[in-house]
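Predict the 3D structure for this chain.
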Amino acid sequence: MKPVYLSGCGLACALGLDVTTSLQVLRQGGVSASQRSLPGGLGGSFPYYAIPYTQTNWNDRARDLVRRVAAEAGALQARTGALFIATSSFDIGSVEQNRTQMDYGMFAEKIAEWLDWSGPVYVISTACTSSLNALIAAQALLNAGDEEEALVLGIELDNRLTLGGFAALQLLSSSSSKPFGVNRDGLVLGEAVAALRLSTRESAPWKMLGGANVVDGSQPTGASAPAVVSMYQRALAASELTANEVDLIKVQAAGSPGNDAVEAQGLRLAFPSMPALVSFKATIGHTMGASGTAEIALLIACLEQEVWPKYEFGTDTELDVELVTAAPEKVRHVLATILGFGGSHASVVMGRT
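Done. Predicted structure below.
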């Protein structure tokens, strides 16, 4: 199999419109969530991490952000390769604003046109795990030699349906995201558009080693501890690593009372000697289908520049896991996890070259 390198990252999130700005803002302490009112006159509002880009037309805003992050990731070198579009909400915001329905094929065509893409285009939508499953699929395609370049693009932008739906399910925090926190009370949603460029043609400091997706529908809106363990084991087997070779895990840890506890249980079962743990949900919010690409782009930048998120809440000691407050000194192997609706549990493993 051909080695697959992570050759470029692009990110627009609540911290900023590119990786450099996001890192600078994170170094200064990050940003506070804004407030989003519930749609349809339902009353009430919830914290929300919005991208600081004020274009009011949904399509124009989405186009500008997609082009920005793709260019930052090096899309020019990949345009004849494969494009993987990962999302859970597609262009619902545009439909809400313009009252014009589009099918998924038309959405993909629109994104490809924005990027002047000439290679094959794939759409991955597996709820919150969309971006990580797109990465797994892109790596498999490149490993097999079917393509030499791929761009994985995660897109999740503000819309009324997502906010209203999560509020109706009583899954949102009314205050703040507290991953693994003692007083955690729910998710805080956020926006992100992020791109990761994969290549077999050029080496880079980080290489994709493997990944796995495990589906357990017994808990449609939550995680399953056996599935979490199986996900870790399969991802490590695909990467030809053992549990004690993992130095850092980017966990899901979105602040959900139940899901955080299940994830912590799975971590304890899969890793007798616990690696360092980090979560970005209190930094940029839960960005749904884009969270895999967005959090990996931010994580790689944090490791390279020795910047780290701050956690302004106490850890729930009953979980018996803890987020580290500074970047570990030596990180060679990183495992990134996202847990999503529909019982989808996904992890990818990256290694320094």
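The longest helix spans residues 58-73.
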